[in-house]
Specification:
This protein is mainly alpha-helical. Helix content is 65%, strand content 2%. The protein has helices at residues 3-7, 36-40, 42-57, 66-85, 95-116, 119-122, 124-127, 136-165, 179-200, 206-220, 233-241, 243-256, 263-287, and strands at 12-14, 20-23. A hairpin with a 5-residue loop joins strand 1 (12-14) and strand 2 (20-23). Helix 4 (66-85) packs across helix 5.
Length: 295
């Protein structure tokens, strides 16, 4: 049974005294996002967060320890290939810390983007059976990935302290207090871009195959394995057009002491995030009403 047919019946929750507490209507306007429903469904969001985190490490040998192994192995590989073999510049920072900072930031953004982009496809079996605010799923993905980010970040801080005690030129700045803002921008970018792709894949399914590959390519257009200062002048404008550039550079600058990012660059990333998020919410709101007829 399609969602459109189910919704048209105007199902509702009823209190003991017979009063309606929720009315589900078949059609709504573009700007009728019903964000208040998300707060009322906060317990459901927490259940989804637990489900996503547990399912990611279920029936694995290392279990949650993969959250430590993955960034560590990635950083080691980057250090060997790009630091030792290719000898790319790291702006005078210890290569291990340089690559780990980029890996921690990029892992959170890419996980939010790729998993959110599959919202409708991966949860069609649930969406077709029961009504609940559909945005609870992508938001739970952001939060479950935030748990993994905290683990990666704690590991990164441990290595920062180790290198600092060992005499490395690592000087954290007061910009570390911008971390909540950087996380908010990354989450907004991942959510906005992810739900745009998820909405489009209800009609164009091959887009889902492009997301993972495109995200990997986008990493090379972001200063994750090289500093922005090492980019040739003719390509610098393209690098600056990437909203993740300022986020990665600001994170490194805050915790490792490299050149700080300009306020204008951060404002650009924030503005880009707002546009992507608003467009994503509007498109998601429109598609969720009829997507079961096309998925």
């Amino acid at each position: 049974m399609s969602t459109a047919n189910t919704v048209s019946r105007q199902t509702a929750q009823v209190q003991d005294d017979g009063e309606w507490t929720m009315i589900i209507r078949p059609h709504r306007r573009w700007l009728d996002l019903r964000l208040g429903e998300l707060w009322r469904a906060r317990d459901l969001i927490l259940l989804f967060v637990r489900r996503d985190f547990v399912a990611g490490y279920k029936q694995t040998i290392l279990g949650p320890f993969w959250a430590l192994v993955q960034p560590l192995l990635t950083t080691v590989v980057f250090t060997l290939i790009f630091g030792r073999v290719a000898r790319l510049s790291t702006d005078g920072l210890p290569p291990f810390l340089f690559y780990m900072a980029g890996t921690v930031v990029w892992s959170y953004f890419s996980a939010c983007l790729t998993k959110t982009a599959d919202t409708f496809g991966a949860n069609a079996h649930i969406f077709g059976k029961v009504y609940f605010p559909r945005l609870t799923v992508p938001i739970s993905i952001l939060l479950s990935n935030l748990v993994a980010f905290c683990i990666h970040f704690a590991l990164f801080l441990a290595f920062v302290v180790y290198f600092w005690l060992d005499g490395a030129a690592v000087t954290p700045t007061t910009a570390i207090f911008l971390l909540p803002l950087l996380l908010f921008i990354m989450a907004g970018l991942g959510l906005g871009a992810g739900i745009i792709v998820s909405s489009l894949t209800t009609r164009y399914r091959d887009l889902q195959n492009v997301v993972t590959f495109g995200t990997q390519l986008l990493m090379y257009a972001t200063p994750v394995i090289y500093p922005a200062s090492a980019t040739p002048a003719r390509y610098r404008i393209l690098l600056q057009a990437n909203p993740m550039t300022a986020i990665v550079e600001a994170f490194r600058g805050a915790f490792l002491g490299t050149d700080t990012v300009s306020t204008g660059a951060l404002l650009y990333s924030f503005g880009f995030m707002l546009v992507a998020l608003i467009l994503g919410l509007l498109l998601f709101n429109r598609v969720e009403q009829t997507f079961m007829d096309t998925v």
